Amino acid sequence: MKHEDVQAFLDARLGISNPRWSMWEDSNALHFFDGRGTPCLVVVLDRRQATQVKALSDAPGIVMVILNISGEHFPVYLYGRKTGQHMWDGITFARRDDEKAVIHHLNSDNIVSFFRKLTK
Fold first, then answer.
1. Phi, psi (5° rounding) for residue 53?
2. Which is it for the CA torsion 3, 111, 40, 51, positive or negative?
3. What are phi and psi of 77, to 5 degrees?
4. What pTM does this model have?
């Protein structure tokens, strides 16, 4: 699937092109949040993908996963880090190299504070 299609899906389904995500240690479920921080989608990753996300350390990193939503496959990049003893958080992008999207979101107040949290 083209990254433009993934970006359009994220925007249409979640109301935001680059939603925040979270994952807890006791689950393989990836939780997505809309622009207001309201939970709006949960996708269960397979064991391999969940292990990759849970391998993120305290330093920000990136993992590519393929979301299976209603039989459709959406490859996304999860930027994030381990934010607690049993929790990981980050932001979703359709392209790894989408510098315009990264810069746009880094300039947003919510994202700036989020990435400050990530880098502490």
1. -65, -45
2. positive
3. -110, 125
4. 0.79
